[in-house]
Amino acid sequence: MLKIDGYLILSQVYESTNSLVYRAIRQQDNQPVILKVLKEDYPTASELTRYKQEYEITRHLNLDGVIKVYSLEPLQRTLVMILEDFGASSLKQLMNKSKAAGQQMLLTECLAIAIKITETLGHIHSSNVIHKDINPANIAYNPKTRVLKLIDFGISTQLTRENPTLKNPHILEGTLAYISPEQTGRMNRYLDYRTDFYSLGVTFYELLTGQLPFETNDALELVHCHIAKQPVPPDRFKIQKSKLKNDELNKSQKIPKVVSDIVMKLMAKTAEERYQSAWGIKADLEECLTQLQTKGNISAFPLAAKDISDKFQISQKLYGREAEVETLLAAFERVAGESQKSKAKSQKNGRQSQILNTKSQIEMMLVAGYSGIGKSSLIAEIHKPNSQLRGYFTEGKFDQFQRNIPYSAIVSAFKELVRQLLTESEAQLNLWREKLLVAFGENGQVIIDVIPEVELIVGKQPPVPDLGLSESKNRFNLVFQKFIRAFCAKEHPLVIFLDDLQWADSATLKLIELMMTDTDMQYLFLIGAYRDNEVSPTHPLMMTLDKLRNLGATINFITLSPLKIEHTTRLIADTLHDNIERVKPLAELVMRKTGGNPFFVNQFLKTLHAERLIEFNFQSYAWKWDIARIDSQNITDNVVELMIGKLKKLPSSTQQILYLASCVGASFDLNTISIVCEKSKEVVFSDLIVAVQSGLILPISELDANLLIQDYKFLHDRVQQAAYALIDQSQKKVVHLQIGRLLLQNTAAANLSDKVFEIVDHLNLAVELVSDRTEQNEIVKLNLMAGQKAKAAAAYAGAIAYLNAGLKLLSADSWQSDYELTLALYEEAAEAAYLSGDFEQMEKLALVLLNRTKTVLEKVKVYDVKIQAAGAQGNFKEAIKIGLQVLKLLGLTLPEQPTQLEIQKAFQETALLYVGQEIESLINLPEITEPEPQAAIYILSSISAAAYIAAPELMLLIVLSMVDLSIKFGHCTWSAFSYAAYGLILCGVIQDIELGYKFGKLSLNLVEHFNPKRGKSRALEVLGAHVMHWKEHFKETLPIVSEGYQNGVETGEFEFAGYCAFFCCDHSYFIGHELTSLEGKMATYGNAIRQIRRENPFNWVAMFRQAVLNLLGRSKNPRFLIGDAYNEEEWLPLAMQANDRLGLHLLYLNKLILSYLFGEYSLAIENALRAEEYLDGVIAMVVVPIFHFYDSLVHLAVFADGSNSEQEAWLNRINLNQEKMQKWAHHAPMNFLHKFDLVEAEKARVLGQVVAAMDFYERAIKGARDNGFIQEEALAYELAAKFYQARGMDKFAQTYMKEAHYGYVRWGAKAKVEDLEVKYPYLLPKSSPANNLTFSHTINNPNITTTGSQSASALDLATVMKASQAISGEILLDKLLTKLMKILMENAGAQTGYLILETEGKLQIEACGEVDSDNITVLQSIPLENRLPIAIINYVVRTKETVVLNDATGEGNFTNDPYIKQHQTKSLLCAPLIDRSQLSGIVYLENNLTTGAFTPNRLSVLQLLSGQAAISIENARLYQTLDDKVKERTAQLAKANQEITALNELLKAENFRMRSELEVTKQLQQMILPKQSELESIEGLEITGFMEPADEVGGDYYDILQRDGKVKIGIGDVTGHGLESGVLMLMTQTAVRTLQESDRTDPVQFLDILNRTIYGNAQRINPYRNLTLTLLDYANGTLRISGQHEEIIIVRASGELERIDTRNLGFPIALEEDIADFISSEEVQLNSGDVVVLYTDGVTEAFDIDRHQYGLERLCEIVKCNHSFSAAEIRQAIVDDLRRHIGSQKIFDDITLVVLKQK
């Protein structure tokens, strides 16, 4: 018990989240008192503030109905408040006590209490206090004395109105169940005294009905209920009627309708629809009580008849904006469509909207109109639907006086969003931290530099590497995109509102453009407001919007017009509580003066009231006014003048503060204003409160520890404008200078960067008033800092403005007096000018720099900017010229147009540098230290791209020079790129592939060793696209270019990122990746390249994607690149104009390949000749050998039609191609040898060399197949088929054409497949119906190079024998099955295959795999059920016949097989393996790419091998059996030895006793499980359970209880094992059943009582024992889940998997005494066929012999695979699979499982 000197504490009477309340005696005078003390030993500043505020307000309220406070005293580190004790309890306690006793308060008593509360509240409001936390816990009542008092003024306010801000619902002020809609901060309203009436209504509701109007534990849902849902009226409940005179107690009856109506009126969503005064409420309540006491019932009477308020409150409703609100909310619904699958209803004026499950998008809504027209008010309507969808809303506002500050509104918006996140739970915050860190990668500091608050979430971030100018810009834009993307999710759409866009800086407009064109962005609704009278068509905002519309962004507009007379009339009528006709003349006058501008209307009406031109008449209880008198006052019709007039009526000290605040901005804080006023915060605060009370400024934060409000904003821009106008024009600069100086003086150096924009903006406005040179220099430095910060944030216009301001302020001799400062300023200005595209200004600044700089290195930096600028303008020759100039300054002279002799000499000089050394050893060179050569390498790298395009010969010297410098002086950032480029030249130009490859490997090792941030993407692009494939398989280049893409994106090297993305696509195409998936990959990369705005690689990817679409059959003509992805006719002129030689070669190469494949040889020849013209654009690329390959093939295709001279020329051309191909094949046979062989085959064909042709065809086929070039394997088969057909060898031709057909099918080239079928129908006959096939065959071997026909004589028997030998030579069963499975699939043309053997009397899958995967699963003994068509397998087992189905879904006797119907199987083959007339196994193969894949030809091969396969399997199994017996015997001996040892230990007495106890516990555990008959009696659900205790029994628990048609299912797990755990489980079962029988239904109450019950016993048994427990209440297809346990698995009837995380639904039982605050529930609707699985961790954490856990993913997969079966079958499938996993392992934990299935 608490001890406080001077007080005798009697008892604790109450405990809340924050406070403890005690009843005590003050010992000095024996006075009974109440002590209220903060609960925490270390209370927060906000908690202490609340106590102080409560004390101060309560002390000043000297009212009978308010608790008296005696003192506030310190107590250690906290405070204790001493209050009067009048013997009361809180109304909440009294209500709970009555409820627990099964009693209900009488209606007379309810009404009497309500009257007392209302009367007290009226007195409080008369004292200008708003309570803000009216609820039963804050109402103290003594039932004996009937004294009632209000308590707890901790969040009360003495302001007449407040502006609630958007907050996390968990930290809203007030008690969430009782707060008004406007107090949530999610309504478009200010908060005034009427907020207490809503809370009063909720209190009365609970008093009358015994329950709250909205019963939910979800904070956000509760907020949504307050703002958008209507509660059930109280008259639908029943209550005890008062005792009559004869003392007979009538039976319960409904709450009177009129009483219910009073409560519902109090709970109206808008304050205007509630009562307007406490006296009006009291009058109606007294009438009810009088009638009840006199008549015994309450008749209807008009409500609010006496509800007249003398408070002038202008209605806050939106008038005349219904259509605009509809438009705004419809747009939001479109954006958030995916975020809510169920229909979400938003109610406004009877409107029902449905948020549909449509495709999400990002959208921008622009709201336009004059200042004060109501743009912000309209936009605030978004809060209702956004709250419902759990979305985030944030807003920022641009300032008319701070237009240079980059991203000011965006930064403000995201600062606010970060503050919202910081109020989340620690678990939720950790999720956000992870999400943001993933988005940032290594670039988090980029965002923190702009929004420092982000560091509070993600923590300190590493500094980002310095990059080039363009790369830094790219990096910033990309990281900011990812940052915004992180907030936009299906679960929480993001709404960003940017106000006053007409003042937006150019950087923000650019960021908006990035957001709106980001194809990866979803669930973002961007709302902007702007004054359309202040923008022209050429305004940056309008030009940005036009650009976005042209790019296809979704942008909509709402233009707000002034209010019409009827709207203004209604507003005034609602404000004055009068009828329309009476106020109409006043409304007409207001319209004349204000033009219907809503802000002006409001201010004009306030002026009339302030001037007493509208007054409340206490005689007539109505408002009165005199039109003639108002007219005579000649009130201005200019809103700014009107506001100036209002301001001038304030005290002069307040006026001074406001005009200084207007200079600071639309928002300002007390600390800043205190500095600029040079007054204490307390003095400034008291002056600001006057302005707050006048409604001219609004507080936007709460009281601090000193009871001061820190943050404010002007009511409106017009108020800020008026305040600024108070400053005399001649004094404005003086004021700004004073503000700037004071802010600078009071800002610590460490914080200067954060405040620099604010400070320097003031100083720049008054810089001409500064005459002191020292101060001028200080302002120059500040401008430099601001410029650098703006430039780093890609805000180049702002940067230029600051830097130019600094330049203007430099002294005439600054280059002499302050060289470093001047140099830095000019350098930054030149860079900013370049980055903003102002090349003329950049040149001027660069000229000054070059004339003034002292050192070469300083000039290098200037020249680099000039090089970048020239490149950006496409002037590559100028970039080269500048580069050569600066290189000369660095001592390196290169000729602009080198001769061949100069190039040759340079190659020799470079070679001499590494002669005699191993190239690999160059990795050991030191890092470069001398700055000049380092600068030279950098400049060489800067001009390399320009030289590659405009001066290829010079490019050679540039690369050689970079290599020379690296070898001579050591390695630097660009050395890896230089070696890679050198490798490119050696491979592609010099044709020294071995040496080029070595330098390529050196570059790759250097990249891995140094991991340079800059230049890495360039190096990887060169290596992957130009070097590595000359020695390694094409596929080895993919990881290189993929990493190059990722690095380029991260470091802002977007140019090379784009190139790498393209090479990922075209290399995958030429490798032979399956076309359907490749098309998706290309689409993804295309979108990624578009995001980083690289036009050329985007077009190249689109070109290849169109080629793929053509082959897939998704274009009109496969020979032309015209379709959904690309249009050659549109692109070609542009490429020609730009001289895109790489792109032009790719275009004609693709057309060459397509024309050739589809037999348009003349067109192919034409395309080959055009492609040849542009070979210089693709030096050393993969496409070079591809071109020579197809060029040779197409000329050989037309060879027979050429003249003698043409044939001679073509043959020479082909021979030259083959010389190159042969050399390439020598270095990389895996890539090029089969290409060489195929061309040789075709050449032998046209030359009549038949035997050579046959040999080369076979070599080409084998080489292509062995190296994975599926498309070239198919092509080789096709050409061979044509060859054999021409020689009359039709059987061979047919066989080879079928293989070609199948190869193209596997590649996915549907158009080519159809082309073959049309051209060669006689070689590709339709397969016979499957039911006519009764062969018993197996399938061929991958080593066979000549494929046979159906005739055995046509087969290459030698090759078949090799395959047979491969099978027979393997004795180990796992290896045999692996090899056999591959042989079967690859040669049968199957996608997937299964080998089925008999194991332990059952047929089971013992091998399975896919043709494109090296992984073959063997010896897993997988059941056939649900994996294969059982009917077909049974047929094959019984008949020993082969089943072949060309189209399993449409033919044969098995079309209704469940497996075939579910998987829509196409080609299917199921064949027996026969050994000595006995079935030894079954082969099952599928191909779902095409029908008719398994031809009779393939079955013939299968037949030849089936016998050997069966024999080999039998031999291997015999060998395994023998081996197993040896192992088994060895294991038995080992096991026997272990058992002897274990037995000795078990004989020890203690262990024996414990064993006995555990056995008893295990039996008890089994005895209390639900009986099968209990489970079967449950309607609506199939339920089955399973429990297997561990060897050392644990505390698993499950139970299923039924009572009155309701079912409660429980599952839990006690920590630890043994007797204690088992006993705790038994206690839990008993407690659950007891509570169920006592009809406890509320999940919070149920689990709370259960926990308290178990907690006490657990403390006695073992305080470290506790359990997780989840309870599920089932009724009519609905599950209500509460409590914390394992995840719950749900598989819908459709097969869709859902997982419910129960961590947030409860807390471990018996761990803490009170867990009520942790308990919540979630409802799940079950439909017919839905499956629910509950389990303990004994299932998911079960180990196999290798200590691998079974895992949740495997459990989910088993449930999903078996969900269509009964609950019992699902349970058995899980248990069987779990046993297979565990094997013979010891069970270390109880295994418990419950399966539910909705009938």
Automatic annotation (TrEMBL):
Coiled coil region boundaries: 1519-1553
Keyword annotations for this protein, in alphabetical order, are: Coiled coil
In the UniProt record, does the keyword Cell division occur?
Answer: no
Sorted alphabetically, which Pfam families does this protein's record hold?
AAA_16, GAF, Pkinase, SpoIIE
Domain of life, per lineage: Bacteria
| Coiled coil among keywords | yes
Give the Protein kinase domain ranges.
Answer: 7-289
Matching InterPro entries, A to Z? Answer: AAA_16 (IPR041664), GAF (IPR003018), GAF-like_dom_sf (IPR029016), Hybrid_Histidine_Kinase (IPR053159), Kinase-like_dom_sf (IPR011009), P-loop_NTPase (IPR027417), PPM-type-like_dom_sf (IPR036457), PPM-type_phosphatase-like_dom (IPR001932)
Which CDD domains does UniProt cross-reference here?
A: STKc_PknB_like
Q: What GO MF annotations does this protein's record show?
A: ATP binding; protein kinase activity
Instruction: Kindly provide the name given to this protein in its UniProt entry.
Output: AAA family ATPase
